[in-house]
Amino acid sequence: MLALIATIVTLAAIFGLISSRWLRLPTAIGTMLLTLLLSVGLVLTSQSIPRIHAWAIHSLLRVDYERFILHGLLSLLLFAGAFLLDLDYLSREKLSVSLLAGVGTVLSAAIVGAGMFFSAPLLGFHPPILEALLFGALISPTDPIAVLEMLRRVSAPRYLQAQLAGESLFNDGVGAVLFLTLLGIAESGHIPSIGHVVWVLMLQTGGGLALGILLALIVSRLMCIVCGYQIDILLTLSLALGGYALADRLHLSAPLEAVAAGLALRWSNGRHSANISHNEIEHFWTAIDEVQNSVLFVLMG
Q1: Can you give the pTM of this predicted structure?
Q2: How large is the average pLDDT for residues 116-135?
Q3: Which end of the chain is more exposed for a tag (fewer CB within 10 A), N or C?
Q4: Can you list the alpha helix ranges (DSSP code H) found in 250-277?
Q5: Which positions ≥6 away from 138 have C-beta within 8 Å?
């Protein structure tokens, strides 16, 4: 497992360097493109160099993607994305962000799922409606990493960046809740009533948001009474990882807990700035966010 992690991180570093230095592409796009080319090369050379191809297949099959992403990377990615948001611009765009992330994600999942369900038979496939909706929930949340990088390059208005970043962040949470709810229904083998689904969604969503805000306020208070950026960073890490794990254990929405915790910590720290190492914390979470995204795009490719 250590060799696999080392390989993935090394590939992310090399592909990031090539993207930035020679391809002049946003890191996310360049990393995904180069990883896909590498994957195609492995397929094309599977007959002539079977040992490398077999090693790649064997290594990837050892990765538990559900545990690694849903119960690993996602907690830090969502917390970092929320913590690094510009709250002033996000507050001004709250209506458009709410509509796009909430109503837009649910509608997109339903439309994509219905399209999959009715079009798949034309290709000889007959997926159950739940599987089609699962695909819709999986594919609907957007990832604006490359778009935001491009907007920064051309000096796009900050309100537009806030709309895209906020919408993407919250639709990740909404999409994750929707996906996990549909997955639970599919695994249980019976379809509950619409009222039951709505109640569960509201309970998980509201509970996750409330838990994230509560934990963030506690951590922010602790950060005010210590001196030292190392302790501040450790406290934010404990909030990102521990809060997500606690919400998961309580069967609340862990993704929305992470989003709420990041936003609430940013807001609370802004009100109590004494003794908090703002610059060091922001630099740390910016680096965490970029490194994790590179690793994630390599895994996706």
Answers
A1: 0.81
A2: 90
A3: N
A4: 254-271
A5: 175, 179
